[in-house]
Amino acid sequence: MLWSVSQKEEETVYDEVKVPQRKPEKAADTNGLLAEQKATNKCCNYQVMACCLGIFCVILLSGTIVITSVISVNNNKLTAENQQLENLTKEYNVSEMKIKKLTAENQQLNTTNQQLGTNLTDLNNTLSSENERLRRAKDNQTVIIGNLTKKYNVSEIKIKKLTAENQQLNTTNQQLNTQNDNLKEQIRNINNNVTVAQQIIDAYCPIKDGNRQCKPCPDGWLHNRSSCYAINDPDTAGQTTWEEAQENCRGKNSDLAVIVNVDEKKFISDNSWKSSGDKGYWIGLRAEAGKWKWIDGSDLAE
């Protein structure tokens, strides 16, 4: 009896423990599955947002690097040209000093020539006096004439030497003038290059509110991918030939458009036909020896 009672008590306890354990397991499994699905959905949303943000940051960083590189290259080029201009200016100043020195020497030579002229005048006066003395003292005639001849010969030698030196100075002066003209021409060319570089910087990076703000294309140009396009839409009187249109483009540091793909063709066609109506427009394509070629030398693809 005791054993039976004990066994029933154990079975009762077992049933009481076992039944409560099964029901929470099912509830826990269902709740865990829903929580896991919600966490998975949130994680996917965060991953998509993080991926989009990363792509935007990469694009922004790439654009910043390209713009910074262009500005850095232009600044380095401008610095090199300024250094070259400074060196040429120094050489020009040295040439100016040499010219001043040669001018002073030339003035000294002129003074010497004037002195020689005075000396010759004195010699002539002396000759007159000596001639007078010769008339008075015939005994000393030969000696006096000999002395005067020697003095005259010395003067002639000095005059010839000074004349040769003067000619040499004139030749040197002409060479220096030529060098000076060449230096001035180089300085003008450098100034023109600096002006063109500054115009390019001002066109792509204009100053607004005291700061330079760079953009991919100058004002009035259209931007597509990595190229800039200018649409010239003159009236009938202002229409030009293909050669004149190409020359106009080169005046803007560009060329007539070379179409490399369908997207570029569509972009140019949409913007050009909209502007020119039914008049047509020029691109960088023309016939050479019966064959269509682009201005970069490539053949027209079928």
Automatic annotation (TrEMBL):
<dbReference type="Pfam" id="PF00059">
    <property type="entry name" value="Lectin_C"/>
</dbReference>
<protein>
    <submittedName>
        <fullName>C-type lectin domain family 4 member G-like</fullName>
    </submittedName>
</protein>
<keyword id="KW-0472">Membrane</keyword>
<dbReference type="InterPro" id="IPR050828">
    <property type="entry name" value="C-type_lectin/matrix_domain"/>
</dbReference>
<feature type="coiled-coil region">
    <location>
        <begin position="71"/>
        <end position="200"/>
    </location>
</feature>
<feature type="transmembrane region" description="Helical">
    <location>
        <begin position="48"/>
        <end position="71"/>
    </location>
</feature>
<keyword id="KW-1133">Transmembrane helix</keyword>
<dbReference type="GO" id="GO:0005886">
    <property type="term" value="C:plasma membrane"/>
</dbReference>
<dbReference type="InterPro" id="IPR016186">
    <property type="entry name" value="C-type_lectin-like/link_sf"/>
</dbReference>
<dbReference type="InterPro" id="IPR001304">
    <property type="entry name" value="C-type_lectin-like"/>
</dbReference>
<feature type="domain" description="C-type lectin">
    <location>
        <begin position="224"/>
        <end position="302"/>
    </location>
</feature>
<dbReference type="InterPro" id="IPR016187">
    <property type="entry name" value="CTDL_fold"/>
</dbReference>
<keyword id="KW-0812">Transmembrane</keyword>
<keyword id="KW-0175">Coiled coil</keyword>
